[in-house]
Specification:
This protein has 387 residues and is an alpha+beta fold. It has one domain. The chain has helices at residues 6-10, 27-33, 40-47, 64-73, 75-81, 85-88, 114-127, 176-179, 188-211, 226-232, 274-280, 283-287, 318-328, 334-338, 348-357, 362-372, 380-385; strands spanning 13-19, 132-137, 147-149, 154-156, 166-173, 216-219, 237-238, 244-245, 253-260, 309-312. The chain starts with 5 loop residues before the first helix and ends with a helix. The structure holds iron/sulfur cluster (2 copies). One iron/sulfur cluster binds next to helix 13 and helix 14.
Length: 387
């Protein structure tokens, strides 16, 4: 399994030694079974997403009201995650796809064309809350070769059928102002709300497709690697910090996917200069407290088993990143806050900047970002007190 024609459009560099990723090696799974990652503090970190175990403190951004919002923003995803956990051990949306569906319609609805179906789907996705929408062909390279069995701490077989020809990828934007308060527990609310919105949109979209008489599986962080699918679905490009960078929201969004056999038209991958911009930028590298982000050129170096094998790219050290999260008792998005693409693109000046960043004048764009944009951390009270 290696290079495919789509790689010419995305720029993915997949080598002959490529191996599909096992979900068991995902850092959040390893924190549950791997003694080198698992600790008392990591247990407290996960527990902290539920009051009153949040371990709030007096420091700015980590008070009870900050955790109160952070944890409330995750609440919908937590309810869905635990809906079948007791009987089956499934953690839906995180380790397993969502099963909260009705049977739908027994016969497939006849669209005039895949183009019409795609238009309808995008309309429904946006109606249900998606900020971004794209479609790509199913690509088994990015499907986890095995899932994680939370009860046993072992691998288990993949569940989503491998014959579904399309993946719908959606993006939910994260609040720009909240990302300016990173690091803080409060800023985690932007992530949590992104996922909660994601889960509502994904379930609605999958049920709509089932109601039309087709197969559909709604998936959030489970089942497959989201960033390569999002790139193939035309949502954006992968940045040095390993996050998706989009034209509309920069790196500030959460992804979700629906695997389906509804005949659709695939989107075209788009490149708007991110790769070459990251070549000359190291903001995320220098700002990352534990130095988890790769400097230099893309390579196929793996820091540890939580990295994909056989793809040349910028690879983040998930172990050091996660350790930092655990130590500060909340997730971190400093790499999002400092990224020059993290802007409000409703403003024409920022759209102009994005255009400049995609040209040979990218160094000027970086310099302008340096001079004109205040990317320092804002206090949580700044967010709370804003009108
Ligand atoms: S989330 Fe924080 S610790 Fe992790 S890579 Fe980004 S800046 Fe570094
Ligand atoms: S901070 Fe700079 S190097 Fe890092 S992802 Fe953003 S643009 Fe790329």
């Amino acid at each position: 399994m290696s290079r495919k024609p789509i790689d010419d459009l995305t720029g993915f560099d997949v080598g002959p030694d490529f191996e599909r990723f096992s979900q068991r090696d995902d850092i959040f799974c390893r924190a549950l079974w791997d003694e080198s990652v698992k600790s008392r503090r990591s247990k407290e970190f996960f527990g902290g997403y539920f009051m009153p175990r949040a371990r709030s403190r007096r420091s700015e951004g980590f008070s009870q009201r900050d955790y109160a919002l952070r944890n409330a923003s995750w609440h919908v995803t937590n309810v869905l995650r635990d809906s079948h956990r007791q009987e089956t051990g499934r953690k839906e949306g995180f380790f397993d796809y969502f099963t909260a569906h009705e049977a739908g319609w027994p016969e497939p609805y006849a669209f005039d064309s895949p183009e019409q179906a795609t238009r309808d789907l995008e309309k429904v996705a946006r109606f249900a809350g998606a900020d971004l929408f794209g479609v790509c062909a199913g690509d088994e390279r990015w499907m986890y070769r095995e899932l994680f069995d939370d009860r046993m701490g072992t691998g288990k077989p993949a569940e989503v059928p491998g014959d579904l020809p399309h993946v719908i990828v959606i993006g939910e934007s994260m609040d720009l102002d909240l990302t300016r308060t990173v690091p803080s527990a409060l800023s985690g609310s932007a992530t949590g709300m992104g996922y909660s919105n994601d889960s509502v949109t994904l379930l609605t979209l999958a049920q709509y497709i089932r109601n039309l008489g087709y197969r559909a599986y709604a998936s959030m962080n489970d089942t497959a690697l989201a960033v390569p699918l999002a790139v193939q679905a035309g949502l954006g490009e992968a940045g040095r910090h390993s996050l998706l960078i989009t034209r509309e929201f920069g790196p500030r969004l959460r992804l979700g996917k629906v695997f389906t056999d509804l005949p659709l038209v695939n989107s075209r991958p788009q490149q708007f200069g991110v790769n070459r911009f990251c070549d000359i930028c190291d903001r995320c590298v220098t700002a990352c407290p534990p130095k988890a982000i790769a400097a230099g050129a893309p390579s196929n170096h793996r820091h540890n088993r939580s990295n994909l094998k056989g793809v040349s790219k910028w690879t983040t050290n998930a172990e050091t990143c996660f350790k930092f999260w655990v130590n500060q008792n909340s997730d971190c998005s400093i790499c999002i806050r400092v990224c020059p693409y993290n802007r409000d693109y409703r403003r024409w000046a920022n759209r102009l900047w994005r255009w400049l960043a995609g040209t040979r004048l990218r160094r000027l764009a970086l310099w302008l970002d340096d001079r004109l944009v205040d990317r320092r951390r804002q206090k949580a009270s700044w967010w709370w007190d804003r009108p």
